[in-house]
Q: What sequence folds into this?
């Protein structure tokens, strides 16, 4: 497998919830391609808009979970291209965002961590629901989503409604005891299994599958109005808060934002939502902003404080080094550690053997790692470890 194939396949596998590369490895590969000016049709768009790489799946014997296309008309959703949210991992980065758009009304909401779904809804009727991926390349989960639509749903026209589906943490045990527990390790993987194999689940099971809507383009002149329209239509929306004018000085801003983050985290825990950060965005939809590649500058994803990656300690039991065609990768096994999402961590990606040598890590040593994207265990050292520890201390 060459690095072009690795990149394209990694995007698809991440899109369907089965990542094959760590975030750090993917980012390095992405930067190499951008620097060389290769695969521009991929690097300049969001992975959600990629076609299904049928040839690669067949070449490497990877089972496609569903047919490439759906029999339903996908033309309306095909017009809707995805954008990504730029993440910030420090108070300083967040302050710069507020400074750039000082005076503009802003709104904060919980960043859901479930299965991303876009649905075409025409007034009272659900026409189509696709998971990540556009132009008929996403997985058709319309039949499953029909069970999650509000009973008296009504929208004033034809809209694309985006949201996240998940199984609340407290209900995972129900599925683990009743079905294959490997399909229900996390709130997200459990939802994926139910959506894609809905015929295997009964109506009682669907009572534990939740859907929260957070975006519908054109439904309201502000984000706050959009949320209210979605709620009026019968949808659940993530907890949100309209922000008052932020303080000018950095020190006062830090105190002000910390109080807001604490309040939002308390709301997250109270409602029991799976979340991996906060979304802070401009409230006024009429404000024109730049979109660089797939990133819209009108919003940021806050990924520090309560939403920093938790640092775990593990004892190394073996070291595995693999020589690939263009680089050498390394991972270690550890004595099993149960992470906060209830999964068992056994394998840690350490990227390059030099990291082990520079940190004097060997069999029997204690290694620090974080869990990324709810699926991959990644070695922490240097800046990343310092940022996470400082955030947790604060």
A:
């Amino acid at each position: 497998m060459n690095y072009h194939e690795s990149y394209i396949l990694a995007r698809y596998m991440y899109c369907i919830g089965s990542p094959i590369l760590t975030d750090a490895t993917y980012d390095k590969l992405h930067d190499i391609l951008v620097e060389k000016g290769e695969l521009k049709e991929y690097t300049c768009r969001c992975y959600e808009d990629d076609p299904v790489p049928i040839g690669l799946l067949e070449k490497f014997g990877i089972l496609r979970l569903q047919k490439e296309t759906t029999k339903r008309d996908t033309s309306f959703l095909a017009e809707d291209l995805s954008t990504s949210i730029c993440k910030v991992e420090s108070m300083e980065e967040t302050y710069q965002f507020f400074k750039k758009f000082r005076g503009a009304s802003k709104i904060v909401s919980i960043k859901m961590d479930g299965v991303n779904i876009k649905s075409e809804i025409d007034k009272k009727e659900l026409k189509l629901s696709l998971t990540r991926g556009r132009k008929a390349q996403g997985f058709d989960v319309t039949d499953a989503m029909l069970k999650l639509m509000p009973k008296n749903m009504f929208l004033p026209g034809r809209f694309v409604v985006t949201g996240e589906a998940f199984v609340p943490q407290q209900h995972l045990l129900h599925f683990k005891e009743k079905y294959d527990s490997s399909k229900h390790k996390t709130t997200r993987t459990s939802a994926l299994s139910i959506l894609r194999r809905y015929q295997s689940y009964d109506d009682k099971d669907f009572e534990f599958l939740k859907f929260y809507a957070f975006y519908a383009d054109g439904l309201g002149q502000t984000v706050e109005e959009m949320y209210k329209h979605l709620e009026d239509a019968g949808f659940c929306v993530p907890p949100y808060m309209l922000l008052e004018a932020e303080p000018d000085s950095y020190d006062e801003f830090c105190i002000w934002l910390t109080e807001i983050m604490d309040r939002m985290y308390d709301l997250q825990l109270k409602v029991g939502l799976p979340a991996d950060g906060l979304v802070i965005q401009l409230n006024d939809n009429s404000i024109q902003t730049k979109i660089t590649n797939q990133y819209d500058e009108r919003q940021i994803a806050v990924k520090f404080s309560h939403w920093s990656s938790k640092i775990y300690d593990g004892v190394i039991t073996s070291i595995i080094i693999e020589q690939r065609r263009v680089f050498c990768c390394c991972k270690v096994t550890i004595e099993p550690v149960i992470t906060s999402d209830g999964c068992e961590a056994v394998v840690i990606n350490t990227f390059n053997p030099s990291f082990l040598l520079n940190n004097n890590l060997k069999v029997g040593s204690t290694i620090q790692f974080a869990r990324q994207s709810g699926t991959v265990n990644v070695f922490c050292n240097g800046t990343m470890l310092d940022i996470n520890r400082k955030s947790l201390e604060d």
